[in-house]
Each structure stands twice: as structure tokens, then as C-alpha cells.
């Protein structure tokens, strides 16, 4: 019988929510899946659609939300794989220090330590990322500016 509802009894009467929940639990237990709430399937659908590249506006319409804010704030979360991909993409934007193999012989000859590579424990306090000692009164030596100390 057509009622406009997605799930009904054979005679068209609505299903009681407790019966739907009970049957859902039976199904995931039979399948050997971990416990999950039926409503969590909406979150899962939104998260998977977002991770697959679906536009948030399309996900909003799929879920029937009146606001895209509800969709983005409540129903989407990052999958660990997507989270890792974002972190790796951000890391690629950060310049990396040169490796020893990139150093050239002329530079090594002009180093004050005779060309020996310094380990982290032998870099003096106040040294920059490359081991160069910065001038203490140089405003660019501290992100906080001169005389402000180090922020934590």
C-alpha cells in the first residue's frame, strides 16, 4: 500500500520505532558487526559521501537539512584516511631542511667546526634551524619581537 513512507507494515501502518531498532540490532549482530545506532547510518552516509568528493550542498539535500551548517557541523567527520591525506598535503607545504647529501663540499670547508655535522645536542642555544647563531637583538630572531621572551 502506498503511503508516502519508506517503510511500513504490509497494510500501510507505520512501523513502531522500537521494532525498527530491535530488527536493526538483530541484523548487525547476525552480520557480526559492532554495535551502532540506526541514526548513525546518516552520519556514516554523510561522511562517506564527503570523503568520496561529494559537495556539501549535495549532502545537505540528500539528508534534507534546511541549512548547510547543520550538515557540515553535525553530520560530516573525517575518516582517518582523509585526515592523514590532509595532514600529508599540509606537510608538503612546509619547507624541509637540506639533507647532508644536499650539502656541497665548498660549504663544508667554510664551516667553523671543520665541516663536521653537528647533532641536535651540539647546536648552541639561540641557533636557528640551520645551526646558525642569530643575533639576540635582531627582531627577526624571535617571533615575539625583542624583549618579549618565548611564547609557549
Helical content band: 25-40%
Radius of gyration: 29 Å
- Number of H/I helices: 6
Note the beta-strand portion. Answer: under 5%
What does this structure look like?
The protein is mainly α and 152 residues long. Helices cover 39% and strands 0% of the residues.
Strand and helix map with partners:
Elements: H1 17-30, H2 40-51, H3 56-63, H4 68-75, H5 80-92, H6 105-109
Helix pairs in contact: 3-4
Compact overview of the structure:
The chain is mainly α. It has helices spanning 17-30, 40-51, 56-63, 68-75, 80-92, 105-109. It is 39% helix and 0% strand.
Salient structural properties:
single chain, mainly alpha, 152 residues, elongated, 39% helix
Amino acid at each position: 500500500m502506498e503511503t508516502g513512507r519508506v517503510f511500513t507494515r504490509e497494510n500501510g501502518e507505520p512501523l513502531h520505532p522500537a521494532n525498527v531498532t530491535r530488527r536493526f540490532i538483530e541484523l548487525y549482530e547476525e552480520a557480526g558487526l559492532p554495535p551502532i545506532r540506526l541514526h548513525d547510518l546518516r552520519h556514516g552516509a554523510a561522511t562517506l559521501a564527503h570523503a568520496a568528493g561529494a559537495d556539501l550542498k549535495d549532502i545537505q539535500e540528500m539528508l534534507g537539512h534546511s541549512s548547510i551548517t547543520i550538515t557540515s557541523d553535525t553530520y560530516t567527520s573525517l575518516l582517518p584516511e582523509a585526515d592523514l591525506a590532509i595532514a600529508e598535503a599540509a606537510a608538503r607545504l612546509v619547507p624541509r631542511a637540506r639533507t647532508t647529501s644536499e650539502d656541497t663540499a665548498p660549504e663544508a670547508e667554510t664551516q667553523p667546526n671543520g665541516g663536521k655535522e653537528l647533532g641536535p645536542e651540539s647546536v648552541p642555544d639561540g641557533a636557528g634551524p640551520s645551526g646558525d647563531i642569530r643575533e639576540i637583538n635582531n627582531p627577526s630572531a624571535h617571533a615575539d619581537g625583542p624583549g618579549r621572551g618565548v611564547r609557549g
